[in-house]
Amino acid sequence: MSYKKTDALMRHLRDSGISIQGAKQKRQLINTGYFHGYKGYRFFGNAQRRLPFTSYDEIYATIQYDSDLKALLYGKMMFIETAVKNIALESILVNSNSESIQDMYDKVVSCYNNAPDSATTEQKRKLQQNKLNLQNSIQASLAYAYKKNNPKITHFYNNIGYSDVPIWALFEIMTMGDLGYLLSCLTYDVRDDISKRLSLNVSCDTDRQLIYKYIYTLKDLRNAIAHNAVVFDTRFRNIDPSNAMKQCLKLEIKLPYVNFKTIGDYIILMCYYMKMLKVSKTEIKIFIREFEKITDNYRQAVNPSVAAIVIHPDLASRMNILKNFI
Predict the structure, then answer these.
(1) Rounded CA gap, 19 and 57, in Å?
(2) Is residue 235 part of a domain?
């Protein structure tokens, strides 16, 4: 099977009902790639929902919209990740009264022996298994960092005076997924402490699972941004949000519903975190306005039937509710 050169791909697009011609559009097609660009952006959410493009300009505008979204979200996402890490780290250090990773395992991670009295044998076994998995993944992270000569880690192993890597150095090399998993393994009391330090609304979070479930939710978006995957249609979404995840945002922000099926819900969650982390109202509102602006620019760049699929009909009203909450 032979591959098509750019001119042949342009002919193929024209045969598919998408007008494309000239040196400028040819260059755009080369730069964004037929496979990454056209193939990646011609549908919304899944391959069955084709976007009714009529011109290559609309495809290019969609790629641009996605790029602008990633550029807007990147800095804020890094800020949230770092802040939540530091708040969790402080709580773990205080609650284990030590900076030793072993003390963290012994004092603040759930296991068979410190399970709640109400736990069944099966639940206790599951907690113990999670703890062993956590120890495994932390060892693997440290081994990988050492192999890669990461100075944050080699510093501790290559010094006669030092023995163990402290918890805070471990946090320096953790991914957002690692952080979520660690949070999920902590005892109820420590999860409760971190939730309070964050000022999460725990009224509907009886098991104190929000701190890690929201991190997992943000991690999917963060990784899509970092790996330049498509984000505008939330195809990166790996979760089925729990009732508590929906209730918390509905109650706090006064939203009619939350489902994380549109990018707007991720913007809402990020703003909720920024507000909890005491980011200024002005800064959060600028972020929301910028999101609205790039979405409006996109709306004007494509035909109404494309815009109707990509931009959720109640996005504007949700953003107004969000601004009132901020």
Answers:
(1) 8
(2) yes
Query: Residue 247 belongs to what domain range?
Result: 70-325
Number of domains the chain is built from: 1
Answer yes or no: is 176 within a domain.
yes
Facing residues of 166 across strands? 100
- From residue 284, give the alpha-carbon distance in Å to each of 68, 115, 150, 224, 270: 17, 40, 34, 22, 9
Residue 35 domain flag: no
Closest CA to 295 of 272, 312, 281, 282: 312
CA distance 253 to 238: 23
pLDDT digits (tens), the chain, 326 positions: 556 788 888 888 898 888 889 899 999 888 888 777 788 888 998 888 999 999 999 999 999 999 999 999 999 999 999 999 999 999 999 999 999 999 999 999 999 999 888 889 999 999 999 999 999 999 999 999 999 999 988 988 888 777 788 999 999 999 999 999 999 999 999 999 999 999 998 888 888 999 999 999 999 999 999 999 999 999 999 989 999 999 999 999 999 999 999 999 999 999 999 999 999 999 999 999 999 999 999 999 999 999 999 999 999 999 999 999 99
Two tokens, residue 117: 């009295």
SS3 category, 235: coil
> Is 305 within the bounds of a domain?
yes
